[in-house]
Amino acid sequence: MNHPPLAIDVLDRGAAHRSDDEWLSAAWEQAQIVVCDPERERIDADEDGLHYHGADTAPDGERVYLGGEDPPVFAVLTDLPEGLPGRSIKPSWDRRDLAIAVEAIGIGHWHATYRFHPTTGEPLKARNAGWELAAGGSRPVFPRTDPAVIVLIDDGADRVLLAQHQRYGGQPKPAVAQNTISPPRERQGRYACIAGFVEPGESAEAAVHREVAEEIGIRIDRLEYVSSQPWPYPRSLMLAYRATADASQPLTLQPEEISDARWFTRDEVRDMWADTADGTPSAVRISVARFLIENWLEEG
Question: How much is the pLDDT for 176?
Answer without folding.
Answer: 34
